[in-house]
Amino acid sequence: MLRFKIDENLPIEIADLLREAGYEAETVWSEQIQGFSDIELLRYQNLIGYLWIVQTDRISIRGPER
After folding, report:
1. 46 three-class SS
2. pTM of the model
3. CA atoms within 13 A on the CB side of 24
4. What is the tens place of the pLDDT at every residue in 17-61?
């Protein structure tokens, strides 16, 4: 199953929509990791296996590096 983490710059409702579609989805707010730098979050996400949905100048999905 795909697991998603929603960044603090996006609406938390995205997590609700993903859950309704049958995916596991959390927000950085629910995990209390808001305010971390992108590098810190990417390192954290690599350890627990979530895909991370972020918004910078566009929305992108980032996952563990191979």
Report:
1. helix
2. 0.68
3. 7
4. 999 999 999 888 888 888 888 778 777 766 577 777 777 666 666
